[in-house]
Amino acid sequence: MSAARRREALAGLAFVAPMLVLFLVFRIGPTLGAVFLSLTDYRLNGDWTFIGAGNYARLLDDRLFWEALGVTALYTALYVPMTVVLALGTAVLLHRTLWLRGFFRGLFFLPYVTSIVLAAVIWKWIYEVEDGLLNSVLGGLGLGPVDFLGSESLVLPSIAAASAWKGFGYSMLILLAGLQSVPREVTEAAVIDGASGWQRFRWVTLPLLRPVLFFVLVIEAIGAFQVFDAMYVMTAGGPVRASYSLVYFLYDSGFKFFDFGYACAVGLVLFLVVLVFSLIQRRLVGREVD
Questions:
Q1: Around Cβ 135, how many Cβ atoms within 10 Å?
Q2: Residue 43, CA distances (Å) to 37, 52, 79, 163, 269 in order
């Protein structure tokens, strides 16, 4: 490397050094600390003993952990398709709308910037059995009240619907940007060949959206696996732990029972679950993204 190239490289490193230091301190450092704590029985008073894989062996025999993992997986299976379909449909409509597009884009994005706690409180009121908005509408139609948050079979779809309303705006903007980057010549050629609107979307637009769609699926799945706030505010994990997620289990282990080593083990298992799920998505959806 020449002296000039070496000076340029050093100058570049000098510019990125502050961010690298912050990344090491606030990202890599805590991650390594969590890995170490997961191998101990660290307690609130600071006492700890190295127990190796003891916490992970304990997880394998913990029925509550497997129940929380099942709840999280089911919630993800409900939330991700719901959010992606809603975001994609809204993005297609906005892409075809010329009148007040900016206004509607901001309107649909507004729930995303709303506090998750505030959104959960609002939706909890909407789902109320006695005075809730949804049950009032159902009552006007002559249908009986439905306990959306008190039913074991309805609580997860109800929370997933509320979370999809809260979070679809971000994915909508990403998909809208992807739609706007589709070359117009390609769609015009499909029109000349006689392709219908659905055929153009299915065979032209959707394949070109594959990289964007893969990104949206991954970030939404990661967010779904980390669900906690909505369940904490709307149901407190009930009824009968039907909405008790893996992060909720981690929260109770660390901040309710102060079993920090066990909580770190739960967090690392969650990381591995998300990583494996993302790799599966990469295999199924993103294999042609490169």
A1: 20
A2: 10, 16, 35, 34, 20
What six digits make up the tokens of 260?
A: 């920090």
148 — phi, psi (to 5°)? Answer: -65, -40
Distance (Å, whole) CA 9 – CA 113: 39
Residue keyed to tokens 């029985």 = 41
Residue 263 amino acid letter: A
The full 3-state SS of 67-131, as one line of letters, equals HHHHHHHHHHHHHHHHHHHHHHHHHHHHHHCCCCHHHHHHHHHHHHHCCHHHHHHHHHHHCCCCC
Write out the two tokens for 266: 């739960």
Is residue 52 a contact partner of residue 39, using CB atoms and an 8 Å limit? yes
How many C-beta atoms surround the C-beta of residue 34 within 10 A? 17
The pLDDT tens digits for 242-254 are: 999 999 999 999 9
Looking at residue 22, the DSSP 8-state letter turns out to be H
Residues 6+ positions from 18 with CB-CB distance below 8 Å = none
Mean pLDDT check: name the lowest of 94-98, 179-183, 210-214: 94-98
The token duo for 84 is: 């992606």
Euclidean distance between CA atoms 164 and 220, whole angstroms:
10
Apex 74 CA angle, 72 and 80, nearest 5 = 90
